[in-house]
C-alpha cells in the first residue's frame, strides 16, 4: 500500500469505529471483520418508496468502482502448450497484475503486404490466461536456485561412482530428499562442474567401456561416437512458445561441441514425446502434420471430428467450427462417449476405443461401393494410379523397365532440394496408360494437372520387365478396392461397435458434401497404431478430393508443435560455436550455421533408456538410435510428471541419471524429483524479448514482460548464458561466453532479428517495431488463412514424399514386413479384448514377417508381433490381460481447466476441474481444493460395489506397472499406486473409464503430508503439491515403441525448411507415445462419505446420475410444464 | 402490492412494487449453441469481483453442465419441484409465478418473499459437479433433431430482472434497480445479511459473505458499463456466445434478437421475474426440456437460428467482435457494423472470409 493510501485507510478505519459506535452502540463487540462494510453506513434517515424507481443514497457504489480501479495496462503473450498463444492484457494496480483481459487488437493485425484480419478473431485468451495472476503470485512459484541436498553432497564428495548401490542409496533419494537454497553463482558452478565431469567420464574408449559395463547395448554406445556430451539431453519444451528462450537449450547443446570439437549434446524432442505427432501424416504427405488456420472453417461444409474434442481443447479458436452450424454446414463427432463435441453435432457416432481405423475403412468401402470418389483428384494427387508389383509388393519403377531415371529441374530440385543420390535410389514410377493401353513412366514433378497420360485406376496389368520376364501389377486404387471390400459397413460396425447406419451416413456425407474437413486428435493418436489411423484419414480425404482446398483437409492439432514456422531458427539453435558471429549488425546470411547437437526422442529414456530390441533383433532404426542418458535438463515442461510411466522413470530409470535440471516458474513434479531447480520468469515478467506464433491461427507476436520479475527468477535465456559463462570461467575458453554475447549485453533482440530475417514466414519484419507495436502481426504464409497443401493442389507442386504424391500405399521394406503396406486395422497392443496387435485383414498383399509367438505377453514382444487374421478369427482371439480381469479402457484426455499440467495447482481452476472442488476442503482427505477423478458408467460402479464419489484403486498390467519390479512392501509402491475418487457419468459406455491427464502426481512427501499433516493437504516442504492422494494417471501408462515409426527409409520433409530426406527426423519421423494403450482393474478403496464413512453426500440427494429420484426424472423429461410447444 | 405487466408471460402478474421500467435495461443474449463450457467468463468474473476472504464459495458468473450440474446444487430442479407442474396456454402462462405461489407464512412486514428456499452450505460446494454428463449412453449414436441423451452448458449471471425477487424480498429495502441501466444492486452499506434475497431469488444469484455479513451478487460490471464497456464475462467470452445490449432500445442488436428475430428466450420465464439474459436454445436438446426451461417459442427460435437470413447471420458476427457496448447496428454489404452510444462505429467485421494469396517465396507448408 502506498503512503497516501495508507493514510486514507487509517482515516476510514477511524471513521468506521466512530460511525459504527454511534450507530450500533455495543454491536462493535461482534468484531471488526464481521461488519467491515459498515464503514459505509450513513446516519441520514432512509426512505425507499419503490426501489425500481429511485434509491436515495448511492454513494456506496464507489465501493465496487474502487475495487475495479487500476493504474496501468500492458500486453504480453500467454504461451502454454495449447496451440493458440493469445496476446492478453495485464491490468496493473500498485505494481501487481490484478487481472487479465483480452486486448481486442487481433482484428488489426497486418503484414508487409497490407493483409488485414477481421474482428471475428476477437476475443482471445481463456480461463487459464485469466487466472494467471493466481499462478504468478501463487504459492507454487520457484523462488531461488535450489539444489537437492544429496546431489550437492555427491558433487562435494567428488562425484563417486553412481552405479554403486550404496552411492545411489546415499545421494540419489530423489523425491524423499530435501532441497537447499544456493546463490545463482553456486548453482551455475555446481552444474558446470558436473557437466565437465560427465563429459569427461563418458568420453572416448574409456567412457564407452564404462557404459557397456553398465549394460547399455553397443548400438547405443556406438551412436555417441566417443563424445561424452552426448549423454546429456536438453529438452527445449514446446519450442514454438518461446522461439529464443526455449530454444536456448538447443543452442546450449550445440555449444557443448566446444568441449571435444566433435559433437554437442543431444536435444530431446517434444511433439512426438507428448503423443501429439500423428505419424500417419508424414507417411502420407512427407510433412510432419497437416493443419490450417482455423478461420478456414468458414469454408467448411462438413466437419468431422474423430477422437477430437475441439470444445474442450480449442478454446479461443473453437467458435470457428461451431459457427459452421450457423452457415448451413454439418458437424459430425466420433468418440467412445457422448463427448462435449458430440453435443454440437448433427450426429454422433460411438466407437470402441482404438478401433477407429476399421471405421474409416468401412467408410472407404462405401465410397468405393457407391462410387463416391473424386477420380480426378485421385489420379492427379495420389499414388493410387501407380503400379505395384504383385510379386515383391514394391512399386514398379523405371528401373524395372530398364529406362534411366529422369532428370528433374522443377520444384523437386529447386525447393525440395532432393539430393541426386536419393533421386537415383528412388527412381521414377509407372502408371498404366488407358489410352495407349501400356505402362508409362512418370516422375515426381508430374503431379496435379501436370499428370500426363490417362492413368488407369482399376485392373490388373501384365508388364514386361527389362530382363524380359513379365510381372503382374495392380494399381493402388485396385488394391484398396479389393482390400476395403472386406471392411463392409456390417463388418466395420462389428469391429467398432458403431451403428452401421451411421457409418453409411458418414460415407455418403463425405462423398457428397464438399468441402469436408476431418479433424483428428489425441483420442485416436494415443494408440500404438495411430499411424494407421492417420493414414486412413488421408485415404478418406484423398478419395473424396478433400485436400489442399479451402475448408477441406484432414488435420491434427495437438500441442504447440510448429517450431518450423520459424525456419530461420538454425541461426540461433545451431550457430557454429567455433565461429560465433559477434557483430550485432551482421545480416542473418552471415551467421555461420553448423549443427553439432543431435536430436533424440525421449521415448527411449522412457523405455528403460533402451531402443526396441527383441530376442536380439533391433527394431529401432539406425538413424533413430538413442544414446545412454546421464543428465537431462528441461525447460518449459513438466517433463517427468507428464512422462507416461512416470513412476517407473522415478523409481527405476532415473536411478542411472547423474544430473537432472529443471527450470520452471512453478515447483512441478519434475522439480520435486530433480537435482537442480532454476527459477525462471513467467510470460508476464520476461526481461528479454521473445517471439512466438501458432499452428491454429495466423498470429506472430513479439513481446516482453511488464511486471517486475518475482523473487530471484531469471529469463530462461539468461539461465543458459549464466551456465555457459561459468563454463568459460572454469575452462578458460571464452567461446562459451561469446556464444551468448548479446544475451549478456542485454541485446537479445539481435538474435530475434536474425531468426526473423532468415525465416520465409517473417522476413521483412523489424523485430523492435513489432515489439513496440503492442499487438499481433501476421505470419506470412503463402495464404491467409493458411491452408495445408494449397500450393500442391492449386499450383500442382509435388508433395514431400518419394513419389511426389499423397502416398496411401507404403512400399518400404519395413512397412511390407509389418503387414502395413496397405492401411489395415490392427487391434491395440494392450487396450483390446482380442489378441494384442493382431492384423485384421486377409488381402494377399498383407504379408507380415513374424518372429514372436501368439502366446508371448511381454510388452516388447507384443509390439513386434505381426499376425494376420480375418475378423471372424480375430474376434475369437483373446488378450490374456483381459482374461485376468483387466477389463476397463482407461482414457486420459486433457482437461479444459488446465493446459496439461499447467494451472494444475491453481486453486480456482482446481475447484472447477472435478466433482469434488471445495475451497473449504470439508473432507480433509481431499489433497487440494479439489482432486482428480475417474469417470465411470454407474452400472459398472454398481456391479463392482462402488458408489458415486467413493475412492477406488486403479491398477494396470501388473507385469510392469506402476513400475518394473514393484513389490507391495516397497515404500514407493504406496506412492505410485493410484487411489482416486470415482464419479459416475452415464455418458461413458460400460467398460470405458476416463481420467483427465496432467494433474500433479503424488510424491513421497505429498503422500506423507496427506496422511499425517493436520490439514491433510498433500504438500511437500518444497512447496510441491499433488492432485491425488497416491499415484497418478501415469500409474497405468507406460512407454511404447512402434516399429513402423522408427524406420530409416521413410521419405519426409525436414523439420525446418523445405528439404526432403530419409529416416529419423525430430518430431517428424519418430514414435508417438501412446498412453491409452492400457487396461485397468478397478476395486473399491474407501467410502466417499465424510471421514470415510458412507456415501459421498451429494450422491444421496436424488439429483445425481444413476440415482435419480422422481423429481429429477420429471425434470429430465421436461414434465414440469405443460404446453409451450 | 401491485399488478404489473410481464411480457414474457403474456399477462399481468402480482409484484410487490409498482411497474417502473428503467430508461435502459441491461440485457444480454447468450447463444447456447456456441457455449463450450470453458468457464472463461467465470474466471474473468472471479478474478475481478470475488477473490477476497469470505467469497470462496462465491461465483457470480457460473457455467453449469446440464442436466445434472447446477450452482448452487440443482437449484432449478428444486425450484421447479417447489412450484409443481405448471402450464403454458400458447404464449400465455397459465401457471403460477414464484410471487403468486409464495408462502404467506414466510413473509416479512416490509418485503415479499417469493416461493423459494435457502440453499445449504453444502449446496454451494462443487460448483462444477457433473460436468459433461448426459443421462445415458446411446449405443446407436445420436442424431438431430433431438439427441436422446444429451448435455449442454448453461452460463448464468444475475438476470437483472425487471421484477427482481431479491428487491421484493429485502426487508431493509437495501436492493434497488438503477434507472439508468436497469442493473440491480445490493447496497453494501445497508445490507444486514438477512438472506431473504437468497431465499427469494429463483436463480439463486445473491450469495452470502460471512466476513462482511452481507449478501453480494453480480453487479453487472457497472464500473465498466458506465464507461460504455461490456461486462467482464461478456468481453472475455471466447466462445463468442455473449452479446451485451439494451433490450428496450429498438436499435439494439439484442432487441433485434429477442423481440424481432425471436431467437433468444428468457430463462425460466414462468418464475415471473422477467429476467434479462436471453438464451438461444441449443438445437439438439429435447424440446420438452427446453420448453420447461425457456417457455414457448423454442422451436421457431431453433429453426430461425439454424437457417439464419443475412441480417441474423450479420448480427451473430457482432458477438465478441468488440468489448464496447453496441447500441445500434447495420448490415453493410458483407460487413456487420456496430455503433456506440455516440453514434460512432465501434466495430466493423466481415461476415465472410476470403483466401488471400501471398508471393511464391512464402510457403504454407513449413
Uncertain spans of chain A: 1-36
Oligomer: heterodimer
Return the string of H and E elements of chain B.
EEEHEHEEEEHEEHEEHHEHEEHHHEEEE
Portion of residues in helices of chain B?
10-25%
Spatial order of the strands in the main sheet of chain A? 5-4-23-22-21-6-7-18
Q: Tally of extended strands of chain A?
A: 39
Describe this structure in words.
The complex is a heterodimer of chains A (1125) and B (366). By secondary structure, chain A is an alpha/beta fold. Chain A has an eight-stranded mixed sheet with strand order 5-4-23-22-21-6-7-18. Chain A starts with a helix and ends with a strand. The relative contact order of chain A is 0.13. Residues 1-36 of chain A have low confidence and may be disordered. Chain B is 19% helix and 20% strand. In chain B, strand 17 and strand 18 (345-350) form a beta hairpin. The mean pLDDT of chain B is 97. Chain B has helices spanning 40-49, 75-83, 165-169, 196-200, 222-225, 232-235, 253-260, 287-294, 298-306, 310-318, and strands at residues 2-6, 11-15, 26-31, 62-66, 86-89, 92-93, 142-143, 152-156, 175-177, 184-186, 207-209, 214-216, 242-246, 265-266, 277-280, 328-332, 335-339, 345-350, 356-357. Chains A and B meet through helix 2, strand 3, helix 13, strand 10 and strand 27 of A and helix 1, helix 2, strand 5, strand 7 and strand 9 of B. Strand 27 of chain A pairs antiparallel with strand 19 (356-357) of chain B, so a sheet runs across the interface.
